[in-house]
Amino acid sequence: MKDCVLFDMARAGIWYTNDITVEDTQIEAPKLFRRSSNIHLKNITFSNALETLWNCSNVSLDNITAKGDYFAMNSTDMKISNFQLFGNYSFDGAKNVTIHNAKLISKDAFWNSENITVYDSFISGEYLGWNAKNLTLINCTIESLQGMCYIDNLVMKNCKLINTTLAFEYSTVDADISSKVDSVINPSGGIIKAKKIDELIIEKDKVDADKTKIIVKDNHNHSCGNTIHRKEFKSVI
Q: Domain residue spans in the chain?
């Protein structure tokens, strides 16, 4: 399919389909592509991407703009590049997904997901990545209230956090952050490197502080700002 328009009446129109390529197309219909495999989409605008790409496998997306909630729920083996999404609850339950050069304005993105890697992207939305396993963020800028919590094996490399509060609660973390972090609360374990942490909250009755190492890179700030139960964590300057 190439140089086409799918109007709203085409909702739920492409299901149970194997081996389909769509290029240079405007899609106005919601609930497209469900329980399908080997899907290749390029130069596509989804003006209403509600519940699009559910339970699909072997999906490639290149130069896609989508607006709508619940994008790519429970889909697997996805390769995505040059992607813009404006919609909440994206990639819930998704597995084996690689994303390059994306802009995601999405509350609750990557919930319950496994094996997600995001490169060179901007992500903004509350509660990012809750209950995920193996979430990796590389060269990303992230804005999130209570983001990256309840994650098993969160890896962050050269990432910036802006307006990000109450991060990493009950997560195992290997995070290298090139900016300050507004606040961190109760990580389960691992290592967190940041330029500065304005507030570090460690509640000894909820987590074992000895399992987490905090490294503050900014030598002009020999503390982590306001800290609760300071003696319960390791801080290395």
A: 5-236
